[in-house]
């Protein structure tokens, strides 16, 4: 039945299939991204527009699940706890192994390419060297883009916005599938090895999350790879925790920074956190560190080819006796201020470039590949041609390594220089990103690089990092920002040489911190990661100061890069705070239209009709006489549970309460959420006869009898905090008066989106507000900052 006056607005996935398949709709949606997000029903996942839906972290308390939990003894609880820790161990081990594999492959593929090119340069075959270098980069880029476009568009980009949205309660098909994982790993190796100015840290976060999600799916019934124990994890709450651990493991694998990985998961991607999750995340990243240490020890024997000079080996890169004084603080403060400005400009330009790329990519797969090909050719030209602008420098007499460095990584690339000389700009361009960072961070190298070479490399890396991100291939922002920041820090060190006694390598570390703080606005995790990278605790005060200054300055201009990407992709992300205008509205102001409601004992035909004509995922269940004295809200039943009931066909012939024992005909596993690789049941797949359509089904044993409810006069701001903190998918709105219908509407994620609220109440967009947040307090003033 439908109650008029209020609408059930579960638009998280209320999309009709014909509409999603419309080419004109996709084009319009991409165009919408160029301006603002106008829908919370679809989003740009990787490089493909996909329907999205909300996750549900609420515990379903119906008769069947209550009986199932009552049947659990201490042995079941012990199994559950052991499985959680076992999964964390497996996530850490697999993420560590995958991270090592990616680094090993990148160092060998890219290293071989640079060695072959350098050997041709030594033979003065410059044209052939460029042809081989550009062709290698082109093949690697097109391979990465091709497998992404045709096999797993969800693998494009870093994957951090998708993980961040998932941990906020937004799910999209395919983001954690096995196909996405395989393409992410292979595509990252090819894309990073192609000399594009991209990193592997973001893809490793996505990779760790994929591994965690696949482990937490409870196996596969179709392939007979399941176990009764795994049923405990067939819910969004436990999968969320595993994905959080996987994201932390990805960062730990990228930088060999276990503590930094935990803090990154806490600070950058997770929306819910608790102490027990902290312990498991720390255990997971510790396993990553142990696995990496064991595998790297194997490489020290020379069994890993070119791997070992760069990649994960970035420790001890600064002076062991780092000394600084009060007089060194002004240059550091200036570095933090400029880093904040450069970081905010980086985000601004990246936003403009991604909007342009969206318009190009919407034209089809061919244009996605053409964009990747164009960037590959331009990048190869820049990397090969710019070093010719630098003048050759004589090798220092006291160099700690061979000069020039031929056939390996190092600070002294010969390039086109005569014997006994090196090209410092080629030393920056003709290395992997990890090796270049290592060179810039190295202490005692103040005279190795010329100011003109540092300026040239800074400008090139700054803009190549912006232009390279956004193609249809796995790519990360973390390493390019670290590299660009290190170059900028070196430059500041050169300019401030007479005013500071700090080593230029130390300035490079502080430059990375300042640009990371200005672009990504993550402070604690970046601080710890840099300390773990450099293995130098003496840097802590300076890194903390730089991060705080750069973040504060950048916050004045733009938002952080991951929030920017989440909005560009169209994910309906719920912020931790409520917008000021939400305090002017009540929950009744944002739910309109008819509400679909089921009776406690409902006709099968009515259920089928509602499920086929709507895309709602939750339905209020109302009892009316003779099942109750008056119309009363009994609870909420989910769409997936209704489909299970219809599939089982446990119907009754009359509108009466069923007398059978549900625990004997159903089990809790029947209603467990299926994994991303499973084919979810659809109402269209059910075949019911006309006789069955006239029968009834008792919904009482399967209805959540304690759903979260709010009174219709509650402010929208207050409802948002409740909705987000509890992790809800549905929030029932009940009337203030008992003389009305027992439920007047349902709040879903869509109802808290600004485009929905301002669409219903456009006068609010004309208001003028100012919001100043200090700690946990919000101060609003109706004079500034238009919403």
Automatic annotation (TrEMBL):
Its main location: membrane. The keyword Transmembrane helix applies. GO terms for molecular function: voltage-gated chloride channel activity. Keywords: CBS domain, Chloride, Chloride channel, Ion channel, Ion transport, Membrane, Repeat, Transmembrane, Transmembrane helix, Transport, Voltage-gated channel. The chain crosses the membrane at residues 80-106, 126-152, 277-296, 329-349, 369-390, 448-470, 477-499, 505-531, 538-557. Residues 703-763 form the CBS domain. It is found in: Membrane. The keyword DNA damage does not apply. PROSITE patterns: CBS. One of its GO terms (cellular component) is plant-type vacuole membrane. It is a multi-pass membrane protein. Belongs to the chloride channel (TC 2.A.49) family. This is Chloride channel protein. It comes from Rhynchospora tenuis. The lineage of its organism: Eukaryota, Viridiplantae, Streptophyta, Embryophyta, Tracheophyta.
């Amino acid at each position: 039945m439908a109650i008029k006056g209020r609408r059930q607005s579960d638009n998280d996935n209320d999309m009709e299939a014909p509409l999603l398949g419309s080419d004109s709709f996709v084009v319009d949606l991409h165009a919408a991204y160029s301006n603002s997000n106008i829908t919370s029903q679809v989003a740009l996942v990787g490089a493909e527009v996909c329907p999205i839906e909300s996750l549900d972290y609420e515990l379903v308390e119906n008769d069947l699940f209550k009986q199932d939990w009552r049947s659990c003894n201490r042995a079941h609880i012990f199994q559950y706890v052991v499985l959680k820790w076992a999964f964390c161990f497996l996530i850490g081990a697999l993420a560590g192994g995958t991270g090592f594999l990616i680094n090993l492959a990148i160092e060998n593929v890219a290293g071989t390419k640079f060695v072959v090119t350098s050997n041709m340069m030594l033979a003065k075959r410059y044209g052939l060297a460029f042809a081989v270098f550009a062709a290698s980069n082109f093949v690697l880029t097109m391979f990465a883009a091709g497998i992404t476009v045709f096999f797993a568009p969800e693998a494009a980009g870093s994957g951090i916005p998708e993980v961040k949205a998932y941990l906020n309660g937004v799910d999209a098909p395919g983001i954690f599938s096995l196909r996405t994982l395989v393409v992410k790993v292979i595509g990252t190796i090819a894309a990073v090895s192609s000399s594009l100015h991209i990193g592997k840290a973001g893809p490793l976060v996505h990779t760790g999350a994929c591994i965690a999600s696949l482990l937490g799916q409870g196996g596969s019934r179709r392939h007979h790879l399941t176990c009764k124990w795994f049923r405990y994890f067939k819910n969004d709450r436990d999968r969320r925790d595993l994905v959080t651990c996987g994201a932390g493991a990805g960062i730990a694998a990228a930088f060999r920074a276990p503590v930094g990985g935990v803090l990154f998961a806490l600070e950058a991607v997770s929306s819910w956190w608790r102490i027990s999750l902290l312990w498991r995340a720390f255990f997971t990243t510790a396993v990553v560190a142990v696995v990496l240490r064991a595998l790297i020890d194997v490489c020290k024997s020379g069994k890993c080819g070119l791997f070992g000079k760069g990649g994960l080996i970035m420790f001890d890169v600064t002076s062991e006796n780092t000394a600084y004084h009060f007089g060194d603080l002004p240059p550091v403060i200036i570095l933090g201020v400029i880093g904040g400005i450069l970081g905010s400009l980086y985000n601004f330009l990246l936003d403009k470039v991604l909007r342009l790329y969206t318009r190009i990519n919407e034209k089809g797969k061919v244009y996605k590949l053409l964009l990747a090909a164009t960037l590959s050719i331009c990048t190869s030209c820049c990397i090969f041609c710019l070093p010719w602008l630098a003048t050759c420098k004589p090798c220092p007499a006291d160099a700690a390594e061979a000069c020039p460095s031929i056939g390996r990584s190092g600070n002294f690339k010969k390039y086109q220089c005569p014997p006994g000389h090196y090209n410092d700009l080629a030393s920056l361009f003709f290395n992997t990103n990890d090796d270049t960072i290592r060179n810039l961070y190295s202490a005692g190298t103040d005279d190795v690089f010329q100011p003109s070479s540092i300026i040239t490399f800074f400008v090139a890396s700054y803009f190549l990092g912006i232009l390279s991100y956004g193609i249809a291939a796995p790519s990360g922002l973390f390493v390019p920002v670290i590299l660009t920041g290190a170059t900028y820090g070196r430059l500041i060190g050169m300019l401030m040489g007479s005013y500071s006694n700090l080593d230029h390598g130390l300035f490079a570390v502080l430059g990375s911190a300042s640009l990371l703080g200005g672009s990504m606005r993550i402070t604690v995790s970046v601080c710890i990661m840099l300390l773990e990278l450099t293995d130098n605790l003496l840097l802590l005060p300076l890194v903390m100061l730089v991060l705080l200054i750069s973040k504060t300055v950048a916050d004045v201009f733009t938002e952080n890069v991951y929030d920017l990407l989440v909005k560009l992709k169209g994910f309906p992300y719920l912020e931790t705070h409520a917008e000021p205008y939400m305090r002017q509205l009540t929950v009744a102001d944002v739910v309109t239209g008819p509400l679909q409601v089921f009776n406690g004992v409902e006709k099968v035909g009515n259920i089928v009709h509602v499920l086929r004509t709507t895309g709602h995922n939750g339905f209020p269940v109302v009892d009316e006489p003779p099942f109750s004295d008056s119309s009363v809200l009994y609870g909420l039943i989910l769409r997936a549970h209704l489909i299970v009931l219809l599939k089982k066909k446990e119907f009754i012939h009359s509108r009466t309460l069923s007398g059978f024992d549900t625990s004997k005909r159903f089990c809790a596993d029947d209603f467990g959420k299926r994994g991303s690789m499973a084919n979810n049941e659809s109402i269209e797949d059910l075949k019911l006869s006309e006789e069955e359509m006239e029968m009834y089904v008792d919904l009482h044993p399967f209805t959540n009898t304690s759903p979260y409810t709010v009174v219709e006069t509650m402010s929208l701001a207050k409802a948002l905090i409740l909705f987000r903190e509890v992790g809800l998918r549905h929030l029932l709105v009940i009337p203030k008066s008992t003389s009305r219908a027992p439920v007047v509407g349902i709040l879903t994620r869509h109802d808290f989106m600004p485009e929905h609220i301002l669409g219903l109440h456009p006068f609010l967009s004309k208001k003028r507000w100012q919001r100043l947040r200090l700690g946990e307090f919000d101060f609003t003033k109706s004079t500034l900052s238009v919403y």
